[in-house]
Amino acid sequence: MTIYQTLKAEAEALFPTLVAWRRDFHQHPELGFQEVRTAGVVADHLRELGLEVSTGVGKTGVVAMIENDEAANDAPIVLLRFDMDALPILEQNDLPYRSRNDGVMHACGHDGHTAIGMGVAQLLTKRRNELPGRVKLVFQPAEEGLGGALAMINDGALTEPKPTAAFGLHLWSRLPLNQVVVQSGPLWATAGKFELIVHGRGGHGAVPHETVDAVLAASQIVVAWQSIVARNVDPSETAVISVCSFNSGEAYNIIAAQAKLLGTIRSFDDKMHKFLQQRMTEMAHGICQAYGATCEISFPSDCPATINSVAGAALMQTVAEQIVGAEQVTQIKPMMVAEDMSEFLNRAPGCFILVGASDPAQPMHSPHHNPTFDFDERMLPTGVALLAGAAVAYLQEQR
Ligand SMILES: [Zn+2]
Ligand SMILES: [Zn+2]
Predict the structure, then answer these.
(1) 50-75 mean pLDDT
(2) Domain CATH code at residue 206
(3) Band of the pLDDT at 364, cuts 50, 70, 90?
(4) Distance 396 CA to ligand 1 centre (A)
(5) Ligand 2 centroid to residue 144 C-alpha, Å
(6) What separation in Å is there between the alpha carbon of 335 and the centre of ligand 1?
(7) pLDDT at 378 over 80
(8) What average pLDDT does range 219-242 have in this prediction?
């Protein structure tokens, strides 16, 4: 048996445990930077395995190192990353392991990622004296747009000591069970947030001519922005502008003095990203001026594109072929979703893969971030074997 087949068999044997961990996390979801219970469960498990654990890294992150007792000081280090946060969604599934924290739900599958990380820790710790190097386990808070990766990096997750490669995964409910997407180059997009505040002049709903209606000006901006992708972006390139939140006004008979829009912009490169920001700014100011309003627009944070290195993807391809079979390893068109795993990959090149989690009996599962999201738990052992395998393969390659 190859090491990959052994890891796969051991991961399969761990299936009931992985399911129990995942369901426990699913029942107790926590929002970004509030993963106190989750981080506690992870840290306890890692300590039980005999690992030295750092907690509170990037607020609620957990880091542990799996070391060979004999490893030289300059032995290679590979980072494996698992995200732990849930989303502000009221779960609508009628499941025994439904969220017990109303309004918060693991609707992206990070409960599965955290369980996979605990499984990887167990498998690799067992054979730590056979590892030709070290494995740095990073359990990350706040992936969902809150900058958890950067918070951990700013708190030293990539130093003392520094890993030279990073690997991670996302379970993916749109992909058939246990298919694995491995690709070199861009997988996911650059994502930026925007916030626009329109200032008008409030007044009585029956006396509109004495007001500057912030709802009307903001509505025109929402519509006009949709022409940027349709009429300013080169059709052979890709971009998205989505207004995802529109808040204004409080009463039936008061014209609102202010409106606030929040949303996201997506692209695959910096130049396009800056172009979208520039056009949005120009249009917002132009429309406000036409309506006698003013506005402020800001772009609070960006998450870089998720780009896999050639070497990282090649290594992952070999490992995935051993674990799921070559016919199950596939590629997809790059998608406009984003992932702050990119912050790790930009500093420690490697590969981020997708693992199919669609239940074959229910291929039309709800998408990620939907209140009825769920996934096929039979992908959990595959995820464990893939990332444990990637760590072993990388360390062997560096030897
Ligand atoms: Zn998500
Ligand atoms: Zn996610």
Answers:
(1) 92
(2) 3.30.70.360
(3) low
(4) 33
(5) 7
(6) 13
(7) yes
(8) 96
Q: Does residue 79 share a domain with residue 171?
A: yes
57 CA → ligand 1 middle, Å? 21
Overall average pLDDT of the 179-202 stretch: 95
Segment 29-60, tens digit of pLDDT: 999 999 999 999 999 999 999 999 999 999 99
pTM of the model: 0.87
Which ligand is nearest the CA of 88, by number?
A: 1
Q: What is the tens place of the pLDDT at every residue in 269-313?
A: 878 999 999 999 999 999 999 999 999 999 997 889 999 999 999
Q: Which is catalytic among the residues 30, 35, 143, 376?
A: 143
Choose one of 268, 287, 302: the last residue of a domain: 302
The number of the ligand nearest the C-alpha atom of 172 reads 2
Residue 56 CA to ligand 2 center (angstroms) comes to 21
- Assign residue 141 the CATH number of its domain: 3.40.630.10
* 143 tagged catalytic: yes
Do 175 and 236 share a domain, yes or no? Answer: no
Domain residues for 372?
3-188+305-398
Catalytic residue of the set 85, 111, 339, 343 = 85
Partners of 212 in the β-ladder: 201
Domain tally for the chain? 2
Clarify whether 359 is annotated catalytic: no
